Amino acid sequence: MGKLLEVNGPLVRARLPQVPNGEQVRIGTLGLVGEVIGREGQEALIQVYEGTESVRPGEEVEALGHPLSVELGPGLLGQVFDGIQRPLGRLLEVSGDRISRGIQIQGLEQARVWRFQPNPQLAAGMAVTGGVCLGAVPETPTIEHRILVPPGLSGELLELAPEGEYRLSDVIARLDTGEHCSQALMLSHRWPVRNPRPYQQREHGVSPLMTGQRILDTFFPLLKGGKAAVPGPFGAGKTMVQQQIARWSNADIVIYVGCGERGNELVEVLDSFPELTDPHTGRSLMERTLLVANTSNMPVVAREASLYVGVTLGEYYRDQGYDVVIVADSTSRWAEALREVAGRLGQMPVEEGYPAYLASRLAAFYERAGRVQTLGGSVGSVTLIGAVSPPGGDFSEPVTSHTKEIVRTFWALSKDLADARHYPAVSWRESFSDDIPVAARWWAEHIDKHWQAGRAEAMTLLTQAEELSRIVNLVGPEALSGTQRWILEGATLIKEGLLQQSALDPVDSFCAPEKQFVLLDLMLQIYHQGVELLERGVPVQELVGLPVLARARRCKSDYKNTQVEKIQDFAKEIKEAFGRLGREHTEAGRIPG
Prior knowledge:
Blueprint: E1 2-8, E2 11-15, E3 23-27, E4 32-40, E5 43-48, E6 60-67, E7 69-72, E8 80-81, H1 88-95, E9 114-118, E10 127-129, E11 133-138, E12 144-148, E13 154-160, E14 164-166, E15 171-176, E16 182-186, E17 189-192, E18 201-203, H2 214-219, E19 227-231, H3 238-248, E20 253-259, H4 263-272, E21 289-294, H5 300-319, E22 323-329, H6 331-345, H7 358-366, E23 370-373, E24 379-388, H8 398-406, E25 409-410, H9 415-419, E26 432-433, H10 436-446, H11 451-475, H12 482-499, H13 513-535, H14 540-544, H15 547-558, H16 564-587
Parallel strand pairs: 8-21, 19-24, 19-25, 20-21, 20-22, 22-24
Antiparallel strand pairs: 1-2, 1-6, 2-5, 3-4, 3-6, 4-5, 7-17, 9-11, 9-14, 10-13, 11-12, 13-15, 15-16, 18-23, 23-24, 25-26
Helix pairs in contact: 5-6, 7-8, 11-12, 11-13, 12-13, 12-15, 13-15, 13-16, 15-16
């Protein structure tokens, strides 16, 4: 037990001899939660995860004997936690609409009973190590929760509980860890959030994370186990892009971390997610989703912890062999929390006031993504997607520039596209993906071998159209040839018929990979057929005026994911329309037959 010496906003100083860095403490009569982040002789510097108003020097400080940790076990999915894993639903029951300080609520409901099915391959007397599956619990109708031996434990299995109903605190197994010392294992265990959970080895990514968003999946794919950033200025649609990824991605588990964003945006997430149907299972999306909410009006230091809480929960499900996607909105607010704490500590500021260790902290966070062979021998992945909010849309600011060097996929949002009501406002000029060769192998095996060539041609067409648009802005469209005007029309077809996608459209909010490729192929077929007629002398004005072009732009919303054949039938109609136009000019003697 120690004494509080000084209070400086979320940082306090206390006399706590022999308490190591990283240990959790409780402060004052309110019992505020804090973490030791520095030591000077007999004194400890503590960051407090709750407001320190009315806390005064002289109050007692109690060391808890463990670092900031989360409770891992059945009951996580479907929950909404704050930045230090307190369930907001139960906080509402205890404290009402405003969270009282010092409330102590465990992350998981201890009284709930779970049906445990032991692993039939295990028996007493067998040697087990960390990561071995002791059995399973049906956490939701969608997800089987595998109960693992915690990392770092190993020994002889003395007993394994039979099938039955157990609470989290009930013993389901005992290990002889040596020297006649037994270790009881329960359905849950704790893990420090700042320590990455161990694994056997990293594996290369082999399949893309399919988000149902064409600009992401078709043009800038992200592999499962990869790391991506979504930078963009205010109003460009970062939160909506991330919500779409959380809603529709083909990961097994989705973790949405609202880190320092506006409360109304998180309220929208909390209201909409329980109403959504998972396109992959047909059941409620919340059966494979959990949320970590730390809004901008919550204590700033808890914002810094919330990302680590989210990624630790993701690693836990990865260790069970699941593919997990973690959406962090936003890492800029997390970096601002680092900056504020560093300023109060008197640390030397560097770029724009951020601490010198900003780049290393960002890299360490994103490094926790990956596809791995787990301790238990299965393969799981954590995919990290972080939003970045550069002030004024300046991508050269420190958080964005450092993040760009770390990630392999960069989905840059454009204010100009957002102002033009082009959503998702992902810029095809500034975005990139380093995973295209691997994604191409997946597309060739599962969808179509021409995906990479079609994507490259579409990107070339968009680039040519950008150059021609600058000429039009200078001297007008009359300066362009018919072929150049058709390039502009082809690029417009790709932008409006393929890249634009409304999150509110009941048909087009999610686009399956098969439909994505058919739409891409349709737009390229139209462009090729137009080029052939232009070469035969058909005026570009007549091509642009064909009614089927307007219908082509609407295909994305007119046909569902299960109606790919109808899009292919429509492609035949377009071919016939172009053929009729060519025959009309041939019969009129205006172009050679």
